[in-house]
UniProtKB/TrEMBL annotation:
Residues 194-428 form the ABC1 atypical kinase-like domain. It comes from the Bacteria. Belongs to the protein kinase superfamily. ADCK protein kinase family. This is ABC1 kinase family protein. GO terms for molecular function: kinase activity. Pfam families: ABC1. InterPro entries: ABC1_dom (IPR004147), Kinase-like_dom_sf (IPR011009), UbiB_kinase (IPR050154). The chain crosses the membrane at residues 6-25, 37-59, 71-94, 580-605, 625-645. Keywords: Kinase, Membrane, Transferase, Transmembrane, Transmembrane helix. SUPFAM superfamilies: Protein kinase-like (PK-like).
Length: 653
């Protein structure tokens, strides 16, 4: 065959393959990936001649001058339908066995090969660290029982050491887990609380390119003065002191180079480990480690973007406090890897000798105001983020971790605190069930009794309130209540604050001061001017409805008096409901048509006699119609199956 003929055959074959691919996808009524459809069409185009060969060969017995008849056209139509039917079968089988997205395409494989190799090395490194610290059996769900306290202490120590060796991401994960008293036993909380992210500083030669790239020029041009010796160094960033051309002293926080790629790789490993642990271990399912991993990933990604921290700082400082000072960010100089903010003059809290009940009370009052009244609060008030300024007041630093609460959650927390202050079990139960998602089968009476006993143990005269948060988390866990992330951030901040207050003023009674706060501020909102304002706001909101109410009542009464009162109910008013019902009806109709075509095909194929349609194939008219109906039945059944498989994949897990 010469070159032009070969080219013509190749182009014709390609066109036929594309036509078959288009018809197969159109008949199934579902969109597929281009590579999958093309591969199915190529396979079908290759198989179809072998299957249709005996049929076509039968026409070779015709003698010159014989008329094959109109039935031959039907046979050719059936052969063409077989050529389309084979790719449809392949696509349906592929949808059932290898759903879209379960296997990456060739482009994704080539693009991600380098990343997977790098991630594999890191995954192997993390696995070796876990095995070295004796965590291998627990990762496989075969660890020893932890009924005794000594076993929990050993495992907690091994976990802390493994996380410390894992690097920045795993240290951060351990720090967050150390605040989840509702999930982990006290032994783990205490041990993980020892994790610190203080590391050796990087040399200036590695930090300077980051500053130059982010600020758009050399450090000497952007700042009037810049101290190249870091003020502090952590696992994510380093802080430096500098002076602007306006004469203002500032602190410049610079992200370590390459830390974003390291954290992204580690977060992917954390997510994969969480999926594996939840699937293979009972404790992983009990803790819901997948949700924990997702929440952790969101938090640390925000911490890596210094623009978010600058916005958090501006949001918190928007409501000035007489007791606490917040640094003001220079937003025009802030980028995702550099943060420039006002420098506060003072000493770190750990360097201040003696105790100060006044400072402890100011710090608690500020945080409770942020949580309960303003809705934007510092979520990590540990001693390293607090300064005692030269004027004796407090300064709050590091707004990478900030919580936000909407008005409904703040109102529920206010009612919760007021009910605790009154030692009202019913009010505490109602407020708690407004804060957390309410389970369907919760025993509210038992929960109310448990909370009543909880308050009797911790809020009575002379009672100890040290283990109050631990007992509250235990009650939450026992009754199947899941704490939303924003509320968990509140409890985490309060638990962290408790340790800070103990350092500021040993013996400081957190619960008594919180109850005093409730008496001073929250009670004011429930009485006097606050109550009048609330009533006025509700009245303004209801006024338009109240003005329209008499006219509507009059129209209803008039219609009822004259016998014209009717009620119109519009079923399936939502377009999504209509689409869903239409899809179900289409699927049922296709099933009925396919079953009918199949039954008719079987009946016709089993019928003897009848006029001969294709003499060359010894094929009767009944058989010819039956075979075509059988092909139509197969097409309709395949369309129903593909809809079933696709809906199964799209259903929420």
């Amino acid at each position: 065959m010469d070159v032009p003929a070969s080219l013509f055959v190749s182009i014709s074959s390609l066109v036929l393959v594309l036509i078959v691919a288009r018809l197969a996808q159109r008949l199934l009524g579902v969109r597929f990936g281009g590579f999958r459809v093309f591969a199915a069409a190529v396979i079908g185009f290759a198989i179809a001649p072998a299957m249709a060969g005996p049929i076509i060969a039968g026409f070779g017995n015709l003698k010159p001058g014989d008329d094959p008849g109109f039935g031959a056209v039907w046979v050719m139509v059936m052969v063409a339908m077989l050529a389309v039917l084979i790719p449809m079968v392949i696509l349906v089988l592929a949808e059932a066995l290898v759903p879209p997205g379960s296997v990456p395409g060739p482009i994704e494989v080539l693009r991600g090969l380098r990343g997977r190799i790098s991630r594999g090395r890191r995954y192997s490194q993390i696995t070796r660290i876990a095995v070295r610290h004796g965590l291998g059996p627990y990762l496989r769900g075969r660890g020893e029982s932890l009924d005794d306290r000594s076993g929990k202490v050993r495992l907690a120590r091994s976990l802390r050491q493994a996380l410390d060796d894992g690097g920045v991401t795993f240290v951060k994960l351990g720090q967050i887990l150390s605040t989840r008293r509702d999930l982990l036993p006290p032994e783990f909380v205490e041990e993980l609380g020892k994790l610190q992210d203080q590391v050796a500083p990087l040399p200036w030669e590695q930090i300077e390119p980051v500053l130059t790239a982010e600020l758009g020029g050399p450090v000497e041009q952007v700042f009037a003065a810049f101290d190249r010796i870091p003020l502090a160094a952590a696992s994510i960033a380093q802080a430096y002191t500098a002076r602007l051309h306006t004469g203002e002293d500032v602190v410049v926080k610079v992200q370590r180079p390459g830390i974003g790629a390291v954290v992204a790789k580690d977060l992917d490993i954390v997510r994969r480990l969480a999926v594996t642990l939840e699937a293979r271990t009972k404790w992983g399912r009990a803790l819901g480690v997948r949700d924990l991993a997702e929440g952790f990933a969101v938090a640390i990604r925000e911490e890596l973007d210094f623009r978010i921290e600058a916005a958090n700082m501006a949001a918190v400082s928007a409501t000035p406090s007489a007791q606490v000072t917040y640094p003001v960010p220079h937003t025009r100089m802030c980028t995702d890897r550099v943060l420039v903010m006002q420098r506060l003059s003072g000493k770190p809290l750990a360097a201040v000798p003696g105790e100060s009940t006044r400072l402890a009370r100011d710090l608690l009052d500020t945080l409770l105001r942020q949580i309960l009244l303003e809705g934007v609060f510092h979520a990590d008030p540990h001693p390293g983020n607090i300064m005692v300024l030269d004027d004796g007041s407090l300064g709050l630093l590091d707004f990478g971790s900030v919580g936000r609460l909407d008005a409904s959650v703040r109102a529920a927390l206010q009612r919760f605190l007021l009910a605790l202050n009154r030692q009202d079990p019913l009010g505490v139960t109602d407020a708690l069930l407004e804060v957390v998602p309410r389970p369907e089968d919760i025993d509210e009476a038992a929960l109310e009794r448990a909370l009543g006993q909880f308050m009797a143990r911790h809020l009575g005269p002379g009672m100890d309130s040290v283990a109050m948060f631990t007992d509250l988390f235990r009650i939450v866990s026992e009754y199947g209540l899941s704490i939303p992330p924003e509320v968990a951030a509140v409890f985490r901040a309060l638990a962290t604050l408790e340790g800070t207050l103990v350092r500021l003023a040993p013996g400081f009674n957190l619960i008594a001061e919180a109850r005093s706060f409730a008496s001073r501020y929250l009670a004011e909102q429930m009485s006097g001017t606050g109550l009048k304002e609330a009533v006025a706001q509700e009245a303004v909101a209801l006024l338009p409805m109240v003005r329209r109410l008499p006219r509507r009542i009059e129209r209803i009464a008039s219609a009822a008096e004259h016998g014209r009162f009717t009620v119109n109910v519009r079923l399936f008013n939502d377009d999504r409901d209509r689409r869903y019902l239409t899809g179900i009806l289409h699927q049922v109709l296709l099933t009925v048509l396919g079953a009918t075509a199949g039954l008719m095909a079987v009946m016709l194929l089993g019928t003897d006699g009848g006029p001969v349609a294709v003499a060359a194939l010894d094929l009767s008219l009944f058989e010819l119609i039956g075979y075509n109906l059988l092909v139509i039945c197969a097409i309709l059944v395949l369309r129903v199956l593909i809809l079933i498989f696709r809906r199964r994949e799209e259903a929420p897990s």
